[in-house]
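Q: Hydrolase Mb2248c, please. Structure only.
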Amino acid sequence: MWKKLWIVSTAVGALETAKAAYTPVIHSRQTSNTSTISWAACPDDNSTQCAFFDVPMDYTSPNSTSTVSIFLRKYSATAPVEQQLGSILVNPGGPGGSGSAAVAVLGPRLSTMVDGRYDIIGAVNLTGPPTACHDTEYKQGAPFPHVGGAAETAHVAKLSAIQSSHRAACIENGNYEMLRNSGTVAVVKDMERIVEALGEDGLNYLGYSYGTILGATFAAMRPNLVKRMVLDGVSDAEAYFDGVLEWGRKGIQETPKTLAGFISTCIDAGPTQCALASTKDNKTETVEGLAKRLDVLYTKLGKEPLVVGDSLTGPGIIEAQHVQTIIFSMMYNPRFWSMLTQGLAVLEQGDGRDVYAVINSLVYGAVPEPYNQNVFNRSMQKIDGVSREAMYPVMCGDSPRLNITVEEYADYFREMGKISPMGEQWALLMGGCREWPFRAAETYTGPWTVEKGLNKTRFPILFVSLDADPVTPLASAVKMSRGFGSESGSLLIQQGFGHPSYAHPSLCTIKHVGDYFVNGTVPKNGTHCTPEPGFIYPTNNTQSKRSMLSERDKGLLEAVEEIGRTDSPKRSGAYGEAYGAPKRFRTPAVLVEQPLVVGDSPTGPGIIQAHNVQYMIFALMYFPNTWSALAQALLNLEQGNGQDYYPLLVNGILYGTLPKPYTQNVFNRSMQVYPSNTRESQYPIMCGDSPQLNITIKGYADYFREMGELGPMGEQIALIIGACRGWSFRATERYTGPWTVEKGLNKTRFPILIVNLDADPVTPLPAAVKMS
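A: Structure for Hydrolase Mb2248c:
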């Protein structure tokens, strides 16, 4: 699964390439009977072993007796015992990415890379107490993407309020001690305890993306324990601890380069392999032409979203930000670029059926992880494969408190959007830390360079970086390797696109990593590798060349490709902050400016906006017997308490998918109700009976404003009426009159009794008077 880790860079300078390879130092495995960890076959996968290992909850409080139970999973070494070299701890990224899942799914492949000489160990998932802020999983709801134009402050204000709901839930329900003791420094100390419990004399470590921050922090704090350490997809650890906004800025500096690679490789592959490589008149496309087409697609969908009538996951719309999310996600793994071009090609033609299903998975989807990737099933919602429950306590807790106004947040969106078309998606993730209230008990503030006091590591670290990584640019790897100095680090640079190096496989890189772990051979600083040809757009020639490889090389290449294949695109979402709603008088007008944050409710966290209150009032105008309860609800909302009303206001009335009782919904045609009629039965009649409603978006917006001026609830009626916009099915027969005796209406056989209240919210007395 892709681990999009929030990454930073610095300017790329000239690389030190003169240093010779380090002299190999081989450390034999210590006897296993020194281990104090009790392993047993994992209940979900008996090819791996599992264990729990207790460590202190708070390392800053020596007298505390509270502990954390870390869940460990091991894929055992396959080499003969006398050839085994110990254990490698693996961190796939995140923060919060599951090393346990990585071992369960990829243990055999990782073992292949090191000739089966090491046990492969990962953690996270069963570790407890949990960092979850919800007592039941379903309360989390679906991830909230930002909607509308990020350049518009009003949209960012709404997003910020939505993100606040998770922070409020953590304040109300979270385990305070766990939330403040989940930072990187605490994990470094956990790793030290694990190494000691394994009975080994130092740490062997493989870290990707955020895992490079964890590894670098360990090396800075415990340099004497570094036996072997490979950091792949290198993030700027110093910038990470200094603040997430600057970290975010630097992290996407090479996203445009990766996107340019996506475009150029498509043109090079040609129309037979890339669906975007030809123009509408079947001429060969150019790099400039394809870049312009993507800009046109963004602009078009930004002005008017593409309507999808049906798809594998139902109807919906595709907006510009959805396309940006898909493209950004797939920049991580060029394996999917051919598929991406096919999706963009049909979107250009106005067909979003197949793409919308992908959008539902990436942006909105709530798809449970396989059991071995989510043992406790703590959170189905993932942010790029990482539960927000695990990510924010680490990422936000490690950095200084992010106190920025909504206006400053909007400015950050605009700034990031200028760096890259996908920059707004990155800003969305960084903003999840806005006013996160839990600071890590300990953070590492340096030094990060030898010149400032960083100590030499026991064995040199191997830094690995692609030269076109969308979120951990080469400049970050250059900075980190230089900071540790020539005696403590060496940088291997691989040509290629994606994140990290396994995204664009190279036998050269794989072999260097394997030799480093197995033989202690450190590549010369500045060593360059190239990816295997034909990986992005395979040809018959690609297969022919592969057939000529040795069996060992085939096995290595297949292992790394399998890792990349498993690291598939993930959805993006955003949650993140809020102390809860201020206790002050609220009216719908106030809620327009600042929605009410609900940290927890029977159906999960969220926000209550002005239109939610308007709709509740409008719906209950039908039933005076509910007005006493309505008055009490409004009083509570005025006081900033939305917990009891969110299920009704939002999940029930507005978004609810609650099945009707059998007697009310015999065919179970649609669970969606507005508020009691299914759209499946309402629209064919209401819209089919009326003339075609052909109005522009501007005309529709004018109608909303006009209806809003007639009454506070007018916009809700406009919403229902506007559903007929563009409805293409006219009723076979419609009655067009006459409607009065004077115009020819005939006398009925028996008089009609017309009954009407004199204060009906939707069928006013004048209508009854007119009809009678």
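A: Brief note, in case it's useful. Residues 153-173 form the longest helix (21 residues).
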